[in-house]
Specification:
Cobalt-precorrin-4 Transmethylase, domain 1, five-stranded parallel beta sheet, Rossmann fold, alpha/beta
Length: 419
């Protein structure tokens, strides 16, 4: 990283109060012209973390007056990818030594880690099934708007935040209950599906069902129903609390055993292994499911997959992408709520590479020390990441110097071979 020199400029025409630091969003500079300050959220975050009162404002001009002045501005510049120049800056009131010290220190610490970098992006956290369901829900809500028909999207709806906001704007509701459904209303079944009981209730209430179940979840539901019809026991390899678990198990009441570790295969009871089948729940990586299948087969050699051709590769592709991005980076930023299960899972995939990982819930969470001697940063979103956070992080980091973006995504392609 290159350390940019920090200039101290006396500025008139901008009011800065005592005991506050003003961080410019843009600056009119006599040397460089109009300077943007994309790194302003980073500077602001550092100052607020140290207990300073911070305000954002534009500095229309920096004319360095020889007489009285209204603010003392600390300014560093760095080149941008498009050839322009950006500023890292903060200002304090004249005579306010404490605020001036804080303003200068914030600019100096960010200037010290400015320089050219590569940002390696892991892509969207949403699979095609989730995106299809989001589109189906939005379309249903758009078509029903103003007709008096209420659209109910069954929860938990695994959809991007922007879709949830759009649905709310269109008057749709996300609900876990059908108690408010009236005849003629629309019930949207999300990607993880719905239980047999929930579907029956929607039909009883006279609702129109828009089925946006992921095809792979639907195949698993069909397999569970078929196993029950044959009197077979089904081992569902997955997560007990996963959204699709109940929807699959509901197709074979009492005939499904959920197993999430190799050790728990000991709980499976079957007198005849030929009457036993298994399936890996969509949403679970094949890498996580394989050891459980091996343990199950060691006890029941004749056990067979209930859906041999319908395998969900999206979780493995996502895990592999995150691992690969982290492996090629010196720092991995995972965007999202630190307490959300998906964020923790993404962090786990990244840490498997040995790379340093930081969870970022907002741009102010990024600190200068994280970027010291870092030339390549990996970036992955969890499903809990707020709308626009990735763009905000990219924009802020671009304010520290030339930033090149690269995208990496592992994809499994399926094809059928005819004989």
């Amino acid at each position: 990283m290159s350390r940019s020199a920090v200039r101290e400029i006396q500025v008139s025409g901008i009011r800065v109060h005592r005991d506050e630091v003003v961080v410019p969003a843009q600056i009119g500079d006599a040397v460089h012209g109009l300077l943007t300050c994309p790194a302003a959220p980073l500077v602001t975050g550092s100052l607020r973390a140290k207990g300073r009162t911070v305000r954002l404002a534009d500095f229309p001009r920096c004319d360095d007056p020889s007489g009285d002045f209204d603010a003392r501005l600390y300014l560093a510049t760095c080149p941008q990818q498009d050839g322009t120049t950006a500023a890292i800056a903060a200002a304090a009131a004249p005579g306010d030594a404490l605020s001036a010290t804080a303003a200068r220190a914030a600019v100096e610490e960010w200037a010290a880690v400015s320089g050219s970098r590569t940002l390696l992006l892991a892509g969207s956290p949403w699979c095609s099934g989730a995106m299809h369901a989001a589109s189906a829900a939005t379309q249903a809500a758009s078509e029903c708007r103003g007709t008096g028909r209420q659209v109910h999207v069954l929860a938990p709806a695994a959809i991007p935040d922007e879709t949830a906001i759009a649905l709310d704007d269109l008057g749709a509701v996300i609900t876990s209950s059908l108690a408010e459904v009236d005849p003629g209303d629309v019930v949207v079944v999300p990607a993880h599906g719905a239980t047999a009981e929930m579907r029956a209730e929607a039909i009883r209430r006279g609702a129109t069902i828009v089925d946006a179940t992921c095809p792979l979840v639907a195949a698993a539901q069909t397999a569970a129903s078929r196993s029950a019809d044959r009197g077979q026991q089904l081992v569902l390899i997955g997560q007990p609390g996963h959204a699709s678990t109940a929807t699959i198990a509901s197709q074979a009441p009492g005939g499904v055993t959920i197993v999430d570790t190799p050790a728990k295969t000991a709980a499976v009871r079957a007198g005849d292994s030929r009457q036993l089948s298994y399936l890996i729940q969509p949403g679970v990586t094949l890498e996580a499911g394989a050891p459980i299948v091996t343990a199950l087969r060691s006890r029941y050699p004749a056990v067979r997959s209930a859906v041999p051709a319908d395998v969900c590769y999206a979780p493995s592709d996502r895990a592999g992408t995150i691992y690969s991005v982290a492996l090629g980076s010196e720092l991995m930023l995972v965007l999202g709520d630190p307490q959300a299960p998906d964020t923790k899972q993404v962090c786990g995939y990244a840490r498997d590479s040995g790379t340093r990982v930081q969870t970022i819930a907002g741009v102010p969470d990024i600190r200068p020390a994280m970027l010291t001697s870092v030339d390549t940063i990996g970036l992955a979103e969890s499903t809990s990441a707020p709308v626009g956070l990735a763009a905000q992080v990219i924009g802020a980091l671009s304010g520290l110097g030339r930033l090149s973006l690269a995208r990496r995504r592992l994809t499994t392609e399926k094809s059928t071979v005819g004989v």
